[in-house]
Each structure stands twice: as C-alpha cells, then as structure tokens.
Amino acid sequence: MDMISAYPWRREKELVYEERRSRGTCPLTPEEMALVLQALGFGKSTQIYIASGEIYGSERRLMALRAAFPRLVKKEMLLDPGDLQQFHNHSSQMAALDFIVSVANNIFIPTYDGNMAKLVEGHHMFELYFLWLCKFCT
Fold this sequence. Notes:
mainly alpha
C-alpha cells in the first residue's frame, strides 16, 4: 500500500502549470530571478544565497542565474560535508539552516510566497517593531 492510499483524506495534488503561471502563482525560475535582480540594480559582484532544497533541473536550471551572478552560495558550500551530514534526513532542520542564513542577511527576496518567505518576512517585521518599541523604553 502506498502512502497516499494509506490515508484516504490525502490525495495527490493536481498541478496545472499553465493555469498557475497565468495567475502568477508559480515560483519564479532562476532565469526570471536573474532578470528581477538585475532590474533592481544588483550587480555581478552580489553574493546570493540560495535557500532551497533540490532545484528542479539542478545546475542546468541555474546556469542563467550563475552567469548573471557568479557568487551563488548554498548551504552545502558553507558547511563541511561532515557537519552537513547530520541534517540530511531532517528536512525541517535543513530549512532551519536556510532560515538562519536568510534572516542574517540584509536583503531577502523569495521566488514564491511559501512558508519560508512568510517566516523570514515576519521575523524582519518583528525586528523592526522591536527596534521601534525600544525607542520608547529608554
């Protein structure tokens, strides 16, 4: 018995990409993200951290983004393989690593409005509110 049929309330998602893309609800592709970043004025020297798991199409899909911004960084590049190994079977812990790096940076630009984007945005809002509130505490 497969996982989906074991739970009757679960079902496979029906993904209709053309419809989602026309509504603007598909994540941006690496090529589209390169165009957005260039339009915002980011140059080739900008270091970009890619906070994600496996990217569909892997390195082939990243070629346009890497050509525009050669300083791409992933968590696999920041940690030693031995240190990263303990997180490999724990996707929530891998996401936590991405969260830590994302909130430590000055700019966070999500490619889609998922949970990570909402969490990082909420964290930045809280930090700004806390700074504003502290003005009245002193």
